[in-house]
Amino acid sequence: MTEATGGTHNGGATGAAGADAGADDSASARRVRVVLVDDHRMFRTGVQAEIGETARTGVEVVGEAADVDQAVTVIGATRPEVVLLDVHLPGGGGVEVLRRSAALMADPDRPVRFLALSVSDAAEDVIGVIRGGARGYVTKTITGTDLVDAIFRVSDGDAVFSPRLAGFVLDAFASSDAPPVDEDLDRLTQREREVLRLIARGYAYKEIAKQLFISVKTVESHVSAVLRKLQLSNRHELTRWATARRLV
């Protein structure tokens, strides 16, 4: 990656002058202050390692949170430019964080902007957080370089989406009709929905555990709960059920 403050020195410049210019460039380089909100500590650590080298990326991670209450507290205390927000969190999810941060988002002098960063690429998740006030939505398959770019763009007020997710938003806001309520789907927790989609896509339990940062036993428990709540017998019926509702 090319350094933001890097450059070549012309021959004849004195060492002191070159050092001073480099210091001035570094001091004037733009910084974006970020809070990471995700209930998986290992994922937060990985993101911070990827984007948190401020001198290299221009991103300064000023706080972290693992649930809704922590997120609201940390965001209010640090007032970052951008919040990287997981959609599914203990305590009400990303939409609840957005609801409780509405005043900060509306501040004309120091607006806090939200960028959803989630494993989920489901239309209802994307539409839910965008309606809640998030400026964009990217999935966790994004590269570190692209994530840094998305953070700066959101900080500038742009809307940023992973390529195929933008269509969900356009479709949703092109129609004044609210999406229909699915009572069966509403019985499931957010985590159960994540597991449901991955099962329906053919992922093995070990692959799901790795992607969601949970144990295989926890995956098994979620699958059992989904089958029980939906009154289904096996993963094949579950796949048909999810496909019929376009959740895959």
UniProtKB/TrEMBL annotation:
All residue ranges annotated as the Response regulatory domain in the record: 33-155
Positions of post-translational 4-aspartylphosphate modification: 86
Chain residue ranges for the region called Disordered: 1-23
Domain HTH luxR-type residue range list: 181-246
InterPro entries according to UniProt: CheY-like_superfamily, NreC/VraR/RcsB-like_REC, Sig_transdc_resp-reg_C-effctor, Sig_transdc_resp-reg_receiver, Tscrpt_reg_LuxR_C, WalR-like
Entry-linked Gene3D superfamilies: 3.40.50.2300
Keywords assigned by UniProt, alphabetized: DNA-binding, Phosphoprotein
Highest taxon, organism lineage: Bacteria
CDD domains: LuxR_C_like, REC_NarL-like
Alphabetical list of PANTHER family matching this protein: TWO-COMPONENT RESPONSE REGULATOR
Protein name: Response regulator transcription factor
Organism per entry: Streptomyces coffeae
